[in-house]
Specification:
Structural class: mainly alpha
Strand order of the largest sheet: 1-3-2
Number of strands: 5
Number of helices: 10
Shape: globular
Distance between the termini: 46 Å
Radius of gyration: 24 Å
């Protein structure tokens, strides 16, 4: 068996938890079944990992505790839920296990684009009869209700699937969840961009600066992804680090315009 261990766990709220905690956590990830269930016997783990039983038991207690600083707010930030004497369930196992690696993501995007092109060709072929003669192309503009357009641009954020990332927001609701469905849609729009990694950067930026409203999160992330997709500014276009142009104003960072929006 195997499991996915993401680099973000070493820089999140588990930072500095100690060797036993990371050893037990990685053992749990590698040995969990497809439902996230795993058996963790402290005596067995101590023998396998080569450490004292007390340290293994202490590590399990850490993983069972509420973590208010965790990126995920599911089960109040807990990593494990005890379901039996030695039985545990990994919280968010399904969400993290569904995150595609780079090769899977490229193959997935290529397949989606093939399906999209095939559907577009079929639609065009069916819309014109074989013997039809078209002298002048006609372009018809159909007004779209603004509310309907907005609602179709972004997946409605009523979480009926596990959240990949949870953003704390101002006002009510107090958080906004990024789902796999939303990530998949944005991957199609930005195929050369690591959407989930950019979302993690945006989360860190928001925590350090100004948070957004829950309603404004999709638009904020779309602006962020658009900026990331455009790539870094060339050296000839980059203002000096001290001032911006001739105004003498401080130079602005890569994502500062997003905060102003």
């Amino acid at each position: 068996m195997y499991g996915k261990a993401f680099a973000s766990m070493y820089s999140g709220s588990m930072f500095g938890s100690g060797f036993p905690v990371f050893a037990v956590w990685n053992y749990a990830l590698a040995n969990a079944d497809r439902h996230g269930s795993v058996e963790l016997n402290p005596k067995l783990l101590a023998a396998v990992l080569g450490g004292p039983v007390e340290e293994v038991a202490g590590a399990l207690e850490v993983l069972l505790q509420v973590d208010t600083e965790s990126r995920s707010k599911v089960e109040e930030g807990r990593r494990l839920i005890r379901t039996g004497e030695y039985s545990y369930t990994i919280v968010n196992h399904a969400a993290y296990n569904s995150i595609r690696n780079a090769d899977e993501r490229r193959a997935y995007n290529a397949g989606k684009m093939r399906e999209y092109r095939a559907a577009a060709v079929d639609t065009r072929e069916q819309s014109v009869p074989p013997c039809a003669h078209i002298d002048v192309p006609v372009h018809v503009h159909v007004p779209v209700d603004k509310k309907e357009e907005d609602s179709s641009a972004t997946v409605e954020n009523t979480v009926t699937e596990p959240a990949l990332l949870t953003f704390r927001t101002v006002g009510k609701p107090s958080h906004w969840s990024l789902t796999q469905t939303q990530v998949d849609l944005w991957v199609l729009a930005y195929p050369q961009t690591d959407v989930l990694q950019e979302a993690r950067k945006a989360l860190a930026w928001l925590e350090a600066n100004n948070r957004k409203t829950s309603r404004g999160m999709p638009a904020f992330l779309v602006r962020w992804l658009g900026k990331a997709a455009n790539g870094p500014v060339r050296a000839s276009q980059r203002p000096s680090p001290e001032t911006h142009g001739r105004t003498g104003a401080p130079a602005r960072g890569k994502y500062d315009h997003i905060q102003d929006a």
